[in-house]
Amino acid sequence: MASARRFKILFVTSELFPFIKTGGLADVSAALPQMLAELGHEVRILVPRHGAIDNRKYKIHDVVRLKDIPVKIGDKEALFSVRSSFLPSPKVKVQIYFLDNLEYFGSRKSLYIDPISGLDYQDNDERFIMLSRAVFELISKLGWIPDIIHCNDWQLGLAPAYLKTLYKDEPQFSQFKILFTIHNLAEQGIFPKSTFEKTGLPESLMNDEKGILFNGKVNFMKSALMFADSINTVSPNYSKDIIKDKDMTGGLNKILEKKKSILSGVVNGIDTDEWNPEKDKYIFKQFSSKNIEEKIENTKALLERFGLKYEENVPVIGLISRLNDSKGIDLVAEIFPKLMEENVRVLLLGTGEKKYHRIFEKFGQKYPDKFALYLGFSDELAHWIEAGADIFLMPSKYEPCGLNQMYSQVYGTVPIVRETGGLVDTVEKFSEKTGEGTGFIFKDYKAEALMKEILRALKIFKDKKNWHKVMKNGMKADFSWQSSAKAYIELYKKILG
Ligand code: GLC
Question: Which of 403, 404, 479, 488 to mutate to test the pocket of ligand 1 (most atoms within 8 A of CB)?
Fold first, then answer.
């Protein structure tokens, strides 16, 4: 039997729940390290101290010996300091290092997009060059040498290139390997060629063939694909999708194809302390698969909160999403008038493209009795919707993994999803014949296909016996991080040989 090896892992991410979150990456960045630590490994996390992170609330303190560490960004020398805190879980201690630099992070109101212009911050290249280089500067200052640096998404895309070039001869870095996790290929960190100079990488990387350029531009995601020791995506099915699909990958599929031997998929889990209808601290009334009738109390409270009237046997459809095309919001907008002809209530929570804000605000005015929305982010409301809705809509065009469809299932909120990416790995189509399955799945990315599947769900909703079956099947599903964290440990082992 192989002896259990205890790994040292530095997990690097640009967002981390509950400190700061724009998407599922934040949830994974907390839950996975937490579970790895519970399984006996030593994990530390590095994340920028974004301006919106509350130092006091989270007891984030200075680290005296980690002050004013220099990083080169082009000709500039920028300084960062490190602050520290822990993940909030009482079970194990996971230390967090916050990269503190006022100019690039501490003074910004949001993570990637300038709230005033609505566009990406113009210096996003410099900001994430800093984060990627800080990984190595931090390690050398700490004298704590991890076995694995686990980097996530384009914001850390340069780190593998740095390890393989600038830092390759440093003895203390010679042992560790980089696992790069792709949470989303729709965001790649693409910058003009002139960004190259700021990276400080050797000239030999300034090309499309062997370097970090893609179509003549600096592409942080491509850099990761070229230089990481191992690459994974957040679901097995997405790892297959991206080899085939040019659209989904902006053309990076060819490179992914070449990297097939080091590319794998590990499905995300969910944090079962946070997302559990039996102990959810936000919702109106806790419930379980043994007393699903009590879910109705949440439905009533939810509708009241959104100013809609509760009526028995009228299904409530929930939607929590970034409002953009990749999440299938265009399809939802297209079917909306038709959907409003049905006897339903629809609730929407999310933010995104301005055009969708306008479209759904208009629908809100047009259908005040059936539809209500909250354009913003609220963790609490997300819990309320997952607990109170009957059906959850997730018609994504692309979905690396998706978390809400899993949250929905454990709350007995039946998901309707499109057959793509991680949705395929986490939702099983319900069959009236066998009584098996946890949700509804449609294939073609077309408004009619979505509407057809909604109508099928609404029909089964009327048949309480069948509906309870599909609800209960979902509530019983095991989405805990245990097995996925173990799959990551296997990956680390494989990389380290
Ligand atoms: C990104 C993906 C989503 C995934 C999440 C966490 O937000 O779009 O599908 O669940 O990352 O990995």
Answer: 403
Which are the contacts of 57, defined by CB distance < 8 A and separation ≥ 6?
none
Name which residue sits closest to atom 10 of ligand 1, judged by CA.
402
430 alpha-carbon distance from chain centroid: 26
Q: Domain 8-269+481-496 belongs to what architecture?
A: 3-Layer(aba) Sandwich (3.40)
Model pLDDT for residues 273-312, shown as the tens digit of each residue: 899 999 999 999 999 999 999 999 999 999 999 999 999 9
Mean pLDDT of 312-328: 96
- The pLDDT of residue 340 is 98
Residues with CB under 6 A from ligand 1: 23-25, 28, 183-184, 234, 268, 399-403, 422
- Peptide linkage before 171 cis (omega within 30 of 0): no
Q: Residues 453, 346, 22, CA angle at the centre, nearest 5°?
A: 95
How many A from CA of 93 to the centre of ligand 1?
Answer: 25
Q: In the predicted model, is pLDDT for residue 1 greater than 50?
A: no
| Ligand 1 centroid distance, CA of 9 (Å) | 21
How far apart are alpha carbons 425 and 422 in whole angstroms?
5
Across the range 202-214, mean pLDDT stands at 98
Q: Which atom of ligand 1 is nearest to the CA of 25?
A: 6
Could you count the other beta carbons within 10 Å of the beta carbon of residue 1?
Answer: 3
Residue of 13, 15, 25 best suited for mutating to test ligand 1, as the one with most atoms within 8 Å of CB: 25
Place of tokens 């909703």: 461
Instruction: Look at 106-120, 336-350, 446-460 and tell me which has the smallest mean pLDDT.
Output: 106-120
Q: In the chain, which segments carry CATH 3.40.50.2000?
A: 8-269+481-496, 289-476
Query: What whole-number distance in Å separates Cα of residue 128 and Cα of residue 137?
Result: 14
Output the CA 235–ligand 1 centroid distance in Å. Answer: 10
Strand, coil or helix: 270: strand
Measured in angstroms, how far is the CA atom of residue 62 from the centroid of ligand 1? 31
CA-closest candidate to residue 437, choices 476, 481, 386, 393: 476
Identify the helix (H) or strand (E) that includes residue 140.
Answer: helix 124-142
Q: What is the pLDDT of residue 5?
A: 86
Which residue's CA is the closest to the ligand 1 atom numbered 12?
183
Q: What is the mean pLDDT of residues 216-235?
A: 98
Contact 122, 187 (CB under 8 A): no
Average pLDDT over residues 7-36: 96
CATH number of 289-476: 3.40.50.2000
